[in-house]
Amino acid sequence: MAHDITVHLIRHEKTKANTERKYIGWTDEPILKKVEAKIDLQPGIVYGSDLRRCRETSQCYFPNAEFIASRNLRELHFGDFEMCTYEQLQHNGIYRAWIDDPINHPIPNGETFFQFKQRVLKGFREIVNEKKEYTLIVHGGVIRLLLAVYGVKAKFFQQTVANHRTIYTLGWNTIEELIGGARCTLYSEAHITVNENMQKK
After folding, report:
1. Mode of pairing for the β-strands spanning 186-191 and 166-172
2. Signed CA dihedral, 56, 85, 96, 111: sign only
3. CB within 8 A of 184, min separation 6: which ones?
């Protein structure tokens, strides 16, 4: 059966904080380098977070596409944990409680998991609301949340993974299924090959 609606989820290229294994939420870092991607998709419009790492990735992957940004598709606001590493936080009792149970132990001065989930789902549903194909360049936490909510198999957020340079594709038979909150009936992952030897502009 043909799928009425297809959604491609792509994580942005790495930033300096990603390579340093820091929690990076709303800090607006650029990507480390401009790259060229070998990718089969050719969207006319790419949707994504309003943070520059998503916009810059879209410019690299889909240079001819229009980029439409949504603040609702930002990464989790990490509050007091922002730009810190596990090594810096591992002896912090509040951090340990959040790691063990992020739903019931919010980050100080950050977002609760419920706030994050409601925001992301609102942004996603505002964009993905009719029969067509969508491409989104967003953050690791956003992809993990969407896979937990809409993936083929029921999983907790902590059980999902969102790698860089991977296309996560979800499909539904009808738009009504998606709007009704149904899990996808099509799921695939594809690696993105990039050329990192571009001359810096």
Report:
1. antiparallel
2. negative
3. 150, 151, 152, 170, 171, 172, 178
Residue 112 in this model has a pLDDT that exceeds 70 = yes
What mean pLDDT comes out for the span 64-75?
Answer: 98
Give the ranges where 104-154 is alpha helix by DSSP (H).
113-127, 140-150
- CB distance 142 to 120 below 8 Å: yes
**What's the start-to-end Cα distance of the chain, in Å?**
46
Q: What is the DSSP letter of 159?
A: G
Residue 104: partners with Cβ closer than 8 Å, 6 or more residues away: none
Gyration radius of the chain over CA positions: 17
* CA pair distance 112, 125, nearest whole angstrom: 20
Structure tokens at 113: 């998991």
Strand pairing category for 193-195 and 186-191? unpaired
CB 142 within 8 A of CB 160: no
The model carries a pTM of: 0.94
- CA distances (Å), origin 145, targets 43, 63, 82, 118, 189: 23, 27, 19, 10, 16
Q: Is the confidence at residue 195, as pLDDT, over 90? A: no
Crossing angle for the helix pair 140-150 and 113-127, to the nearest 10 degrees? 80
Which pLDDT score, from 0 to 100, does residue 198 have?
Answer: 59
